[in-house]
């Protein structure tokens, strides 16, 4: 980006948003970051200004972008997979109408937009191992349907209106600061909290369910680095596969047991979330992100496990 970003973050109280805000403030200063969410924050948002904003209110979105002279938007407001499946009608409205309103404001006020897609944009007919950047996408969850539609809508706004839209397909994201938000991969966050608090975890996915994952610091750097990338080098603008590691519940259990040998785990499979997980790839090929904007994750399973357990033991 050539101009100094004046950034709006929607969904700023969510798992990604709350940590993204912190890194954006470090990089650009608190005066260049505006946090927003449909809910009010319980505490200060790292010193940044906050506005209560419903992305379904198109006039409120436009007014916020205009009055704060926003030129870059990280649009994170969405319903995640398990929550979306429980209320597909609301999921479509929030995930699609909210994105449409953001893109319309970006078009009108010349903003660049980051919108996260997901591993959920793939389906059971997608090649499951080393899933290509460009491949068949026929998801079977409403969450996945909205993510595919969102990718296409962002592509359309770039090609039709020249809007600078960018995005990545996130795998499961693991954080040591914010609690899970209703996703299928939430077990990989829960397991660390329960290991520290109780020494035991009951997993809602089968032991051999293999899914791509990423530690939150890598997820944040992926978003910021993509937004700072040279636009002339970006071919796959709105749906870069990014990943850092791929593992099963049994493998994460063994990783935790390296540092907490007493840790134990059993299983009570949730059919809804298991079906969603079974429709997703085992691993994604992220070579396009590496080639086009230098994507390079910093954590693997064991380095993440060590950092998660160390941090949570201090906090909890």
Q: Kindly report the spatial arrangement of strands forming the biggest sheet.
A: 3-2-1-4-5-7
> What distance lies between the first and last C-alpha atoms, to the nearest angstrom?
39 Å
Report mean pLDDT, rounded to a whole number: 94
The tally of beta strands, per DSSP, is 14
Low-confidence stretches: none
Number of helices: 11
Q: Which fold name fills CATH's third level, the topology of the largest domain?
A: Rossmann fold
Beta-strand residue percentage: 15-25%
Shape: globular
CATH architecture of the largest domain: 3-Layer(aba) Sandwich
Number of domains: 2
Structural class based on helices, strands and sheet pairing: alpha/beta
Give an overview in words:
This protein is of the alpha/beta class. It folds into 2 domains: 7-171 and 215-241, 3-Layer(aba) Sandwich (Rossmann fold); 175-213 and 245-283 and 298-315, UDP-galactose 4-epimerase, domain 1 (Alpha-Beta Complex). It has helices at 15-28, 58-67, 81-86, 88-109, 142-161, 187-197, 216-228, 249-259, 271-278, 287-293, 301-315, and strands at residues 7-10, 33-37, 49-52, 72-75, 112-114, 117-118, 165-166, 168-170, 172-174, 200-203, 211-215, 240-241, 245-247, 264-267. The strands form 4 sheets. A 6-stranded parallel beta sheet has the order 3-2-1-4-5-7, sandwiched between helices. A 3-stranded parallel beta sheet has the order 6-8-12. It has a 3-stranded mixed beta sheet with strand order 9-11-13. Helix 2 (58-67) runs parallel beside helix 4 (88-109). The protein starts with 6 loop residues before the first strand and ends with a helix. The model has no long low-confidence stretch (mean pLDDT 94).
